[in-house]
Amino acid sequence: MQFALTGGGHAVLPRKPPDQSPDQYAHSLHVQAASLHSSGRSADALPLLDSAIASLVDPGTSTIPVSAASSNLHNTQGVVRLSLKQTGAALASFDNAILLDASPPPGEAYNAFFNRANLLHYHVPAPPLPPSLLQTLLDSNPKRAAVPDPDAAIFQALRDYASALAILLETPSPNISVLDFLNQYSLCAKHVGELHLAADLLYRAIELDPAHLVSRGNLSILLKDLQDLPAAKAQSLAAIEIAPRNAQLRHNYGLVLQALSDRRGAVQQWTIAVGLDPDLHQSLSSLGHERGHGGDLRGARDMYDRAVEAALRKHAETSDSSFLSAAASLRLQKATCVVPHIYDSLEHVEAVRGEYISGLQAILAQPLSPSTEIADVVTSTGSGALGYYIIYQGFDDIYARQLFAQVYWKFSSHELLFVAPYLESGEADMQPVVNRKIKVGFHGAFFFRHSAGLLTQGVIKTLDRSKFEVVLFVQTPEDELKDDIYTSLAGSADKVVELPPDVSAARKLVAAEELDMLVFTEIGMDSVTYFLAFARLAKRTAQFWGHAVTSGINVADGAFFNPDVPRHWIGGVDYFVSSKLFESDRSPPQTRYAEELYLMDGLTTRFEVPLKPKEGLTLASFGLPDDDLHNIYMCPQTLYKLHPHFDKLLVRILERDPKAIVVFPVAQREEWTESLMARLLSDSSASKSEYVRDRIRFVPRMDFAEFNAFVKLANVILDPYPVGGGRSSLEIFSTGTPVVMHYEKTHILQLTYGQYRTMGVEGGIAYSDDEYVDLAVKIATDREEERRMRGEILANVWKLYDSDGVTREWEEFIEYAVNHERPEGFGVERIPARFLDPNHRGIELPGKDLAYAVKLQPDTGEGNIMVRVGEGEDPIPFAQDVGELVSAEYVKYRWIAAVLQRGVNRLESQIVHTFELEHGSERIRVDVREGDDLGSLATFIGLRYGFTDEGIGWLGGELRRRVPAHADRAWVESRQALDKLRTPEETVAAGELEEHQCYLTIAFTTCKRLDLFLQTAAALEKNLGLGPGGGAWGAVCEVLVVDDSSSEDDRRTMQREFPWMKFVFKKAEDKGHAKSMNLIVQMVKTRYLMYFEDDWLVLEGAGLKEMVEEPMQVLLDEGAGVMQVLVNDQSTRTCAEASDLEDCVGNGAFGRAGWRRRSAGGVSYLEHEFGCLEDGHTFTHWPGFSLNPGVTDLARMKRHCGGGVFDEAAARFEQEFSVRCYDGGARTAHMDGVKVKHLGEVSSYVLNDAARPFDNV
């Protein structure tokens, strides 16, 4: 039998001795090559093997005979090629060795199967495909070539191990170790998630040799992962009995004891292991974890340092790169091991935060290399616990959470990048779900009577099964935790998939389900869950607030650190699901999330009615005084939730109420309770410390029914901050006990607040420290007030539980998400090279930090002016200097002053969003502060770091995408408050129109332009329905005309043509536009005024609705607070005056100049802002108020504009008045479109012989 070979390219055959057959010659070369390879000369061995194989080739057919000899030759060739890192060629050799095996399937080439399996297992990247059924692999013909395809390699390896095992079991004296083989096979099975198969293989190895330490050690760890802890302990002890001085066995036994919660025993074993092998970095690291968890952070970091040194010594000895990776992992563990469970003080919180952030920044600044890659991500979290505890510091965590995730995107992408196969092409990503059920998975490590399980079970169980197929992914389930909650959830799901603690195996099982939506019920409390979120496992992903903070893991950062990977292959979390009830108004909600924020209207949790309180318990049952002589204040939260600021309020409560007893549950670790008590005493004076010590009590931890009985006995519950109760508040309210919460200090989701809002109960919400103390003491000491609040809560508490509306909102969200484009995410951005100016020169100030810089372009065309202001410098003198330099009139000076003040004074505002730009080898941190003008910020950053104008535009667009709240009214107002030259007045409340009562006066001023006046008045009469019997008189009370210096004939003509108008003819000595305006303000009796000069023509189609009713809806909107609404778009002068409609519409600014708003009645309009540098906001050099046609609220004008009196001596009185209105806090707006056209070409001042200096320019 002959066979054609794969992987050709053999060496030229040297001359064969005439007395040798081809088989003998090939055999001699094989022996020589094996000897050379054994001595480390693999490069010399390979040509001999190639020659030996070539000697067996039939010259006529180019085939080689099938035989054991040729099979063995190719197997050795594969081993040598693999040692030379020729992975593809080695794979071809092993394929040929298997194909050339002369025996029938499965054959006798177990060595080739074993070697090919090891190659596929260890030298081909992990696959993104789900595993086929194991039986299918084993039943199919093993004698086929393996393709070096990462999508199938690991499963082919599994099949090869199975084939080799079948041969080995029939081979009397195999020349490889069956025990080693079984261990390799087991590791491969574990890799693909076949944990039970892996365990069976190890048990078989131990049956063959009960003293085989590797098998027992591997089995003990595998049984630990399978949560069979007693069996894992038994295997560890058996192995240690055989080899008591084996350090690795001692280490593994410590891990088993740790899983059994025997911390003391675990520490003892790790200490023994380090004594046996001082360079066993795993045990040093484990000792560091334990010290960190116990609060000894300095001791933990010392251990991590020792572990790093040990790993580096092992690398120096062995050149094994895995030790470099271990050292990188340990450095990260040390960097994050700075966050205590209990802080010493407020200053301690600040210091720890800075150290945590700077540690991550330092790691992220390192270049990617073999010495910085982190391979084993799960063990890399150390005692830093995924940054779990930083949420309790009271800061916005998005920057810290993203930094942490970015470390893994950069240094562990080779381990974390994974795409479900059905998403590889990108086609499924774009297709809406039609004509089938939406397949949604819920993932969690806490599907039992735990907060995450309790909060999500209602929705999971009640999703409409006619629309949704539900898969429950249970992460690392433990049998003892499979309680009634688990049973109920598992019973309701269409499918339950239990996931192993191995990230690689778990994600394959999730990917196999081909989900439309995957919901993580929490991210940040379980390591495997956290790292699964980096993979692209479903069409869309979402995070529920089981851990109420952003994951920090998004596609934008993944794409940034992996620019060569298709974006649709990159994972991350697409949505964070929250509620409008939960998001505080202290900053725009989206700025707190790396994911796209999806806000529901309701509670987002279909919480089931809590357990009834356990009966028969009293305060005495918990060791507390059970009498009416004490007032019980309970704070039933874990102690690490208690912020040092909260201590001050506790002490104030104890001072205010001599009968107060404040009760906490004991901590999970005794040292945490002791640390908290020490802090509370340190916060009290010596005279107070004794009563603080006597009146703060700790009670044992309790089950759920006991907890509900416990809180029912309290007079009041104290909700801590910055993280308050969520699940616990839902349970507390079921007992009726009032909860006092601090809205301003609750820094994450306002969960208790949202529950109060849902019930319609307000009494427990405090907005200041004083109010928090007052409310708590009032409820606890006033039994009548306590009873009243209990009654109100119990009457409305049903609204919190089992709401169909919550399920419907989840269904709407899932349907929306899977049928819309995937959100982009908010992460690091790489600056495209074309956006950088190669000739950039630095603009930093010598000797001081730069606060702000802007480049101004004067109208004179004399070149640009760079203005730079240092931190601590007053920007006003800079504005004055620039104004003098360019001879700017006052309004332009005020514009410059507004821009510079906002740019400099922004440093006083709170940072609400942070991200980074990659600028060559430099990382630029961009801090967005509340109220920032994003155009101004983009300009400053661009000038500072050398962006082109196009690059500044790109950055502005990126900022707008990341901070959607930048257009909100509150955001703009906070920016305007930075202009210290303003003295805004509180606005007048919006008016209310009375039925059947007119409300508007229309007023004209005219001056010697009869022809224009007649056109203006006629168009107004026609389009608005004025004149006798016109339809406008229900709104319009009077039309007033103030004439300035027209001839008597012209005046008579005006009266004759429009007898229904009221005319005021001024005397010559009273001429002047400002005087006319003051006269109108004095004469008008209505609150609302529409003003026209005599040269504005109302265009066809602009009727009463467009000219009056829609602007009035804006003025009447209480939330808008607008003083004036102009009827024309104000984006350019050609739009404002309708002088060139083609230019107006075609200039690109039309409809963009201003902030898009919508009135309460649904009318769309644009709100003007003075001094804004946002893209598209033209005409911002004008303060706002204008004499162009519009409707004005005179009550607000008088409030904001210095009494509403125009300066009759000012040459530019309109400009002066407009600046005055802006400084007084006036808000102006304009409507969409063009409704009136300016007709005049000659100024009325010229016609009135009162030309101003600039009228003829």
From TrEMBL:
<keyword id="KW-0808">Transferase</keyword>
<dbReference type="InterPro" id="IPR001173">
    <property type="entry name" value="Glyco_trans_2-like"/>
</dbReference>
<keyword id="KW-0802">TPR repeat</keyword>
<feature type="domain" description="O-GlcNAc transferase C-terminal">
    <location>
        <begin position="620"/>
        <end position="794"/>
    </location>
</feature>
<comment type="pathway">
    <text>Protein modification; protein glycosylation.</text>
</comment>
<dbReference type="InterPro" id="IPR029489">
    <property type="entry name" value="OGT/SEC/SPY_C"/>
</dbReference>
<dbReference type="Pfam" id="PF00535">
    <property type="entry name" value="Glycos_transf_2"/>
</dbReference>
<feature type="region of interest" description="Disordered">
    <location>
        <begin position="1"/>
        <end position="24"/>
    </location>
</feature>
<dbReference type="InterPro" id="IPR011990">
    <property type="entry name" value="TPR-like_helical_dom_sf"/>
</dbReference>
<dbReference type="Pfam" id="PF13844">
    <property type="entry name" value="Glyco_transf_41"/>
</dbReference>
<protein>
    <recommendedName>
        <fullName>O-GlcNAc transferase C-terminal domain-containing protein</fullName>
    </recommendedName>
</protein>
<feature type="domain" description="Glycosyltransferase 2-like">
    <location>
        <begin position="1036"/>
        <end position="1109"/>
    </location>
</feature>
<keyword id="KW-0677">Repeat</keyword>
<dbReference type="InterPro" id="IPR029044">
    <property type="entry name" value="Nucleotide-diphossugar_trans"/>
</dbReference>
<feature type="compositionally biased region" description="Gly residues">
    <location>
        <begin position="1"/>
        <end position="10"/>
    </location>
</feature>
